[in-house]
Amino acid sequence: MVTGDNLITAKTIAVECGILDLDADLSEPNLIMEGKEFRGLTDVQREEVAEKISVMGRSSPNDKLLLVQALRKRGDVVAVTGDGTNDAPALHEV
């Protein structure tokens, strides 16, 4: 789940949607991260961490696009949904 919400809100929504288990160990380094941290990674690092991310909070439209690109470079099939113009770059990419 990639959202512009802060991490606390994003985690709560992810638990309510069944993306995260309330009892899961959330200390996994790349399970939950902010867009700023993701965009600060190199292309290779983004590819390595992309499939480990369960929740990305405080993300920008470009962060969503970078995630889609990293997953596709790995050969993954990617689907994107969104409800706003900030989702357009990632939607257009797939």
From TrEMBL:
Q: What is its main location?
A: membrane
GO molecular function term, any single one? P-type calcium transporter activity
Q: Where does the UniProt annotation locate this protein?
A: Endomembrane system
Record flagged with keyword Magnesium: yes
Among the Pfam families in the record, one is Hydrolase
The protein's matches in Gene3D superfamilies, at most eight in alphabetical order, are given as:
HAD superfamily/HAD-like
What membrane topology does the UniProt entry give? Multi-pass membrane protein
| Taxonomic placement | Eukaryota, Viridiplantae, Streptophyta, Embryophyta, Tracheophyta
**Which superkingdom, per the lineage?**
Eukaryota
Name listed for the protein in its UniProt record: Uncharacterized protein
**Which InterPro entries does the UniProt record give?**
HAD-like_sf, HAD_sf
Q: Which SUPFAM superfamilies match?
A: HAD-like
In which organism is this protein found? Rubroshorea leprosula
According to the UniProt record, one GO cellular component term is:
endomembrane system
Its keywords, alphabetically, are: Magnesium
